Recover the amino acids of this structure.
């Protein structure tokens, strides 16, 4: 079974400050982990993914995420937030042992960047 | 057109109407998905089609009926809906080889459905 949790419904950060959006997961085997972003009235857009290898993954728009196997976490980070980063962020997981390609999504975290 | 397109973008219908949502992907993918996104609720997977065969249905009410005539097109037929069915309906596609893959999904912009 696979599951993912995003413990924060909303994250507030000032423009120029670093941001972190949290994600933890549970799988039987090894995880494939994904981050997506959704702007208002739009579909989800892929940001980055972790498959294997380097624990720090770099993605679009200056975002990166750190895979931590011991803490079963995959937090999304950005060194300096922009107002335009304000959006809804989703973490997703696929369990490599399950044989299914269908991911499980978190509930989403609303990121608000204040000018 | 590129990526995943959905029509219409907005739809208002009465509870007795019959309508259909359309999704088209121009990516050559072999799997397509319907999701429902309601306010303050998690993203809900409704249907999955892989190689034109439905492989999963998460107990969605029968008033929603999917159709996948080929690998590029996906429809969601709607009839006798309820006000609680008002939501953003998202279509997605991905390329899935046999077994578990690390391929990401590509989403369309969604259809905003309002049921009166």
């Amino acid at each position: 079974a696979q599951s993912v949790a995003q413990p924060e419904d909303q994250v507030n950060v000032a423009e120029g400050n670093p941001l972190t959006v949290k994600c933890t997961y549970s799988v039987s085997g090894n995880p494939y982990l994904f981050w997506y972003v959704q702007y208002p009235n739009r579909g989800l857009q892929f940001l980055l993914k972790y498959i294997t290898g380097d624990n720090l993954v770099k993605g679009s728009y200056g975002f990166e995420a750190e895979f931590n196997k011991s803490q079963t976490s995959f937090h999304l980070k950005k060194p300096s937030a922009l107002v335009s980063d304000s959006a809804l962020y989703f973490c997703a997981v696929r369990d490599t042992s399950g044989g299914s390609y269908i991911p499980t999504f978190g509930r989403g975290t609303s990121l608000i960047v204040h000018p | 057109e590129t990526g995943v397109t959905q029509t219409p973008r907005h739809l208002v219908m009465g509870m007795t109407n019959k309508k259909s949502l359309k999704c088209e992907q121009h990516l050559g993918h072999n799997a397509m998905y319907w999701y429902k996104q309601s306010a303050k609720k998690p993203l809900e997977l409704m249907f999955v089609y892989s190689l034109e065969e439905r492989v999963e249905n998460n107990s969605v009410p029968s008033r929603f009926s999917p159709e996948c005539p080929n690998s590029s097109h996906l429809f969601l037929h709607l009839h006798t809906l309820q006000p609680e069915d008002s939501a953003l309906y998202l279509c997605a596609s991905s390329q899935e080889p046999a077994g578990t893959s690390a391929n990401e999904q590509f989403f369309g912009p969604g259809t905003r459905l309002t049921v009166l």
Summary: Chain A touches chain B through 26 residues (CB under 8 Å).
